Amino acid sequence: MKIKYTLNQLLFLTWTMLIACSQKPDEKVFVQAVPQTSNYMTFDSIHVVNRFPKFHAVEKGQDVKIEIIGLWNFEIIDSLIVTATMNSRGLWQVYNLPDFDHLGSFLSLGEGPKQFFKSPSVGDKVLFRSEGNDITALIYEFTKGELIKFNLNQSIKLGQDSLEQVEDDLPPFLFDFLILGQDHYYLRQPENQETKQNRYLLFQGQLSSNSLLDQLNRAEVSNGMLNMSLMASMTRISPDRDKILEMYFRLNYFNLYSLDGSLKKTIAIEPTLDDLNLLEKVPQPERNYRFSDVRVYDDFFALLHLNELEQDFATERKSLPEILIFDWDGNPISKLVFKDFFTSFDFDLANKKVYTFDSQTDQFKFHEVTQFWN
């Protein structure tokens, strides 16, 4: 039986073979082509990372010697750690590091002004920044489409919430939301009966796109209710707010780009990319959790790689987590491999520790990672 190829398929196969033949066994990164279809949320070429320059095995962690009831998310900012909890009258708890002295309970549930419909994450759809001597957080309220500024230092000093509404007419229910500048935002929203999750820029109330975002926006699944999670992401912005990082929970690659097009990289950790069309045919329990968390720092970003089958994640996990560290050009720096299971993390850079939290067991731990800085 003869196999027939289209011209595009022949070009793709030729390019892939040429690249594969040019690879040296010890290369850390190689580039390959990818078909430009709705099956992939990628740019034109893929940077495949098959080895990290440094590898660190991290010892088992030690329990944090404080009980934080209802903890589900946390973020480290300078010498503070802010935890998101399910406590309705103290959604965020603030502690100092490394002693964990409690500095206050803030934010509350409710339908009134400056209240929240549910506990906001401290790591997603929020921007922590310095304003003079204060640390503030700009929090996107998911159900109301509001942007609320929370002043941590003033709240600690007063012993009560110091809140200010910054915006009240943003689109609600956004899947991803980043603050690019004054009245300038990046957003990702569901469309076409949730079969697409499209990216836009919002500037002074006007939505727009560009060729770079359009390239990623071509991705689509056939059934939004069943397969929407295949495209789910956690999106971050670099500290300089000039680069965007998109991590996908269910895919074995991620995207790093600048909106002006000066940088656009799809970075894969396996040579065969996850194909949305093929993944749709995989029963839900047999789908992979690829990534679980991502954190950004001045000189690098880090992703939590789980690579766990959903059925094992819900019963008995088999794959120990890895933190994969890259510089802001997308080059691999280091891989940290752990002996404990966890689903989120953050580095305490000042004290050379990494804190981890496991949503399955509620275990909150810290690990010494001095060797990472050596």
UniProtKB/TrEMBL annotation:
Keyword Signal: yes
Protein name as catalogued: TolB-like 6-blade propeller-like
Signal peptide (residue range): 1-20
Source organism of the structure: Algoriphagus faecimaris
UniProt KW keywords: Signal
